[in-house]
Amino acid sequence: MTTSPHRFALVLFSGGQDSTTCLAHALTRFERVETVGFDYGQRHRVELAQRSIVLRALRARFPAWRERLGEDHVLDASVMGQVSECALTRDMAFQIEADGLPNTFVPGRNLLFLTLAAALAYRRGLSVIVAGVCETDFSGYPDCRDDTMKAMQLALSLGMNRRFLIDTPLMWIDKAATWQLAHTLGQQGDAEGGGQALIELIVEHTHTCYEGARGQRQAWGHGCGRCPACQLRAAGWARWQHPR
Ligand code: ZN
């Protein structure tokens, strides 16, 4: 086991593909791992419902991770709804706005989530905050940038007088590589079926679709298949299955 002071982690866990992969990453790396989710008045409650299903499946199928996976926390972040309007919380079609940002962007959302996560981590004695943000595939969100994460790490560490590490395992990889990472991590969970067991869990149980559709299962999982989130996930799957 590592001699690093950073042995206990809090994973920002939404129940999607990315945050589930981040959770697996944390479970291979840290002695104790807790999860936090945010209820911000999501238009589709299916996201929050899938969180506990994913957690249950991880505990059931991955003996090496069962002991490490600790408490799950859900924080009320509904205050976001009072200050912003976006396609994730209101019934609007997805579109790109005049400033080039998708209308699923909620200004300040990730900054607020990281602040709440750090406050919770402080109280729980966890020094690593794991976030599934990524600059590679979907660069529309300025609060997913590496510079934003580094600035937040510094601000939170100074402001709470506690050395936090913001760990972003997906920052520089694309969706195809995220599927491969899940396969590699899955091999370390002692599951029957090895890496494929984690792929199967992610395909079946994680939720990504902006439309909140579970729908028919495709090779890459459930979803409407048309929204940008589904298309990104499906395209990543296709590139992983058939690399050019
Ligand atoms: Zn969709």
Quick take:
By secondary structure, this protein is of the alpha/beta class.
Description:
- It is a single chain.
- It contains 9 helices and 7 strands; from the N terminus they run E-H-E-H-H-E-H-H-E-H-E-H-H-E-E-H.
- It is of the alpha/beta class and 244 residues long.
- The chain has one domain: 3-Layer(aba) Sandwich (Rossmann fold), CATH 3.40.50.
- The protein has a 5-stranded parallel β-sheet, with helices on both faces.
- A hairpin with a 2-residue loop joins strand 6 and strand 7.
- It binds zinc ion.
Secondary-structure element string: EHEHHEHHEHEHHEEH
Can you tell me the CATH architecture? 3-Layer(aba) Sandwich
Catalogue the ligands.
zinc ion
Find the CATH topology.
Rossmann fold
| Proportion in β-strands | 5-15%
Q: Main beta sheet: strand number and arrangement?
A: 5 strands, parallel
What is the count of β-strands?
7
Outline: globular
Count of runs of 4 or more consecutive helical residues: 9
Order of strands across the widest beta sheet?
A: 3-2-1-4-5
Radius of gyration (Å): 17 Å
The CATH C-level name is Alpha Beta
| Number of domains as seen in the coordinates | 1
Oligomer: single chain
Mean pLDDT: 90
Question: Kindly, what is the distance between the CA atoms of the first and last residues, rounded to a whole number of angstroms?
Answer: 38 Å
Secondary-structure class: alpha/beta
Per CATH, the superfamily is HUPs
Proportion of helical residues: 40-55%
